[in-house]
Amino acid sequence: MPSFRDDYDFPMDMEDVDLMMNSSDYIPIPDQENVGTAYIRISLPELNVQKCLQFQLGESIWHAKQQILASFGADLRDGYNYGLYYPPQNGKAGKFLDEERLLREYPLTGPIGYLEFKFKRRVYRSMELNTRKLKQIHTKANLKQFMDAVKHANKEKVDKYVTKGLDPNYVDIDSGESPLTLSCTLSPEKCRSMIITLVSGGAHMDFRNRHGFTPIHKSALTSNSEAIKTLLDLGASPNYKDLRYLTPLYYAVTRDDPVCSEMLLNERAVIGTTDEQGWFEIHQACRSGKVQALEHLIYYGADMDVQNASGNTPLHVCAVTNQESCARVLLFRGANKVIVNLNNQTPYEAAIIAGNLELAEIIKGHSSAEIVPFREIPQYSNRRKLINYTANFRTLAKCRSETRLNLSMMDSRFFDPDGSFRQYSTSSDCYSVTNSDSPRSMSSSSIYSGPANNGGSGSSSNAHPHHHPHQRQKQSQHGKPCSRRRLYAALPNRVFICTKKFKPTEPGDLKLKKGDLVKVLHVGEHGYYEGRRETGEEGWFPCSTVEEINLNSRRRRACSVGDLDSDTEYFQRQTIKQHTSLNHMERSFVR
């Protein structure tokens, strides 16, 4: 791939040099310190101005866009829907650069590159442009009718408009939505075909509505897993940012459908996005009580002990909001329960002050001998670049469950000869406790190879006894092979009650009726659990058909409640004493 500044054998254009030297943003940097940077001439056709800016080649187009907005933003309206445009050249049509790709992935000609920064419009590639006809079709009446057609899922009418040349990249004045974000709110049966029609008609998948949400953000907010799948299939990035710099994953973990967060994580969604108060995705999942989303985050490497701006860990959040199930997941997977927040409170103390005595007892009574971190290696889609996974692995290595790796991820066994990352997870019948003295010693001896959508199962290899190819569940109750795939073992002793009857749709599914009690054994792909009924039958069922029932809350020891009451009085007195001391200090300072 050609470099921006190095390895060129022709003289620099003097006009570019003059523009660069006269630019207020030009800062001369020695050559040895200039590695990995480039000067690019940015043109704004709407304002008829140009600037030469210096960019880091390793940064994304999104970061370059923010740098440009900092220079021109005061003069731009709806700047979040502007993009870097690669002009037509060498017989190729121009295109807008994808915001989540790196700048170095786009080779530019000359020692100083040239890009345009303009509002994202439809790029007409194969149509014969007729400016007069395009103006005639882009009337307010036609744009309103187009939005109505999208709202009512009238695919034929939408296709007719885009065929005539209508640009679907605009924000409706009344609803504040773009056609593509509106299509993501349609029912799962209708949204896929509508999204494909709009994208085929020139809709940009990183175009934002009035609130700054991209289509994949809107899909996550509405828990539309089919829309997320369609956008990802079409090449959308799972890491687009909204106006608050938040990703779709940040919103997906607070919604009811865990399939959405699972899809995003499988496509290498970056973990570690924070809001203005320093809340991470894992904090939001705990506050919302989304146990399945929390487990997925930990499985994919989220830091269980990360602190927000107030110093609260996810366990602190569970303690204050009384999310017992989430707290059990964190404790079981190895969260640190002695970290203090800025108020010098541990999660146990925070639970007592909040009046959540039963949860405080659980935190206090949890022993390190009960910790069982994940041993399974997260599995990812093959269609995302390895560089994105590397960022995720850095996060994975920081989490407390990193002991599940057992060996360096940089070991050559984890990489194919062509440099692509192998896909690993536990096989269907291998997650078992060994005879080791430590409860952490769980068998991870069979790890599968292949992406989530690869069919079939491989056979064992003597060359790598610790890495058996992935197998799906052996057979269903009727002897037919099961197509469901396990991700990881579920927490022990979790009992669920069926709230919506379920009829098997594939071999290996478990028939459930309302009121059935089922024990979850494994968490699978696409929002499925593997469990066992009271009758001993085992099989798969959607997590949306059951709700967890907490049997442990009825088994509290009476003696411990008295201890908690005394602790409550003590911490309340300490809190009052601290506030009194602070108020006295403030009055003294004012005097």
TrEMBL record:
Q: Composition bias, kind Low complexity: at what positions?
A: 436-452
**Signal peptide (UniProt feature, chain positions):** none
Molecular function GO terms recorded: ionotropic glutamate receptor binding; synaptic receptor adaptor activity
Question: Where is it found, in Gene Ontology cellular component terms?
Answer: dendritic spine; postsynaptic density; postsynaptic membrane
Record-linked Pfam families: Ank_2, FERM_f0, SH3_2
Biased segments, Basic residues type: 464-482
Superkingdom, according to UniProt?
A: Eukaryota
SH3 domain boundaries: 491-551
Q: Where are the ANK repeats?
A: 211-243, 277-309, 310-342
Keywords from UniProt, A to Z, are: ANK repeat, SH3 domain
Region span, Disordered = 432-482
Q: Could you tell me which PANTHER family the record lists for this protein?
A: LD13733P, SH3 AND MULTIPLE ANKYRIN REPEAT DOMAINS PROTEIN
Kindly provide the name given to this protein in its UniProt entry.
Answer: SHANK
